[in-house]
Amino acid sequence: MAGRGPAPKDPEKRQRRNAAKDLAVVAGGAAEAPEVPAPPAGLLKRTRDRWADYWASPVARLADPVSDLPALERLFVLYDDLERSNAAVKKRGHMVTGSQGQAVLNPLLRHIQVTQAEVRQLEDRFGLSPRARLSLNVTLGEAAKSLADLNSEFMGGGEDDDDPRFDVIAGQDVIDGETA
């Protein structure tokens, strides 16, 4: 038959074998928190507070305060730029007067869009969303439970007299808490 292509390689001869990686667990202990570096100069108070919140979070334990600092500073400068740009758009409006006196879209809106795209990329690199952490094979605290852990918690209770499922198993009809 034409168009089917070559037969697949024998799995033993394949060069690339992508194995699933284990998740790295980041615990929420305060003793492991890194020292908070000084924020970049000239940031708004809200952005400086956000900087401090980042370094207090469990995700900051994954960042290297030396090699990752320039990219983190860039991220927070971009956050600050977005704050200022959004404030300017709010003040002037989405439409501004163009060079010929016509109404045109505020050029800051395009700048905001481009900046947001760069922010999203940096946030993904540093695991600042649940999906980004999963792509980095990182999970926080309780979320790291394996299926076996969850099953043992579910099945391990054993003597829960309040569970109505046990009444059905025992063959009793229970209606509104009373045996019929």
- The Rg value, from CA coordinates, equals 27 Å
Q: What would you call the structural class?
A: mainly alpha
Lateral strand order in the biggest sheet: 1-4
| Strand elements, count | 6
Q: N-to-C SSE series? A: EHHEEHHEHHEE
Instruction: Tell me the fraction of residues in β-strands, as a range.
Output: 5-15%
Supply the number of helical segments. 6
Q: Outline the biggest β-sheet.
A: 2 strands, parallel
**Mean pLDDT metric:** 81
Helix content: 40-55%
Can you give keywords for this protein?
180 residues; mainly alpha; two-stranded antiparallel ribbon
Explain the overall architecture.
With 180 residues, the chain is mainly α. It has six helices and six strands. The strands form three sheets. It has a two-stranded parallel sheet. Helix 1 packs antiparallel against helix 2. The longest helix has 24 residues, at 69-92. The radius of gyration is 27 Å and the shape is extended. The relative contact order is 0.11.
Give a brief outline of the structure.
43% of the residues lie in helices and 9% in strands. The protein is mainly alpha-helical and 180 residues long. Strand 5 and strand 6 form a beta hairpin.
Draw up the topology in text:
Elements lengths: L23 E3 L18 H12 L12 H24 L2 E3 L5 E3 L1 H19 L4 H6 L2 E3 L6 H10 L7 H6 L4 E2 L2 E2 L1
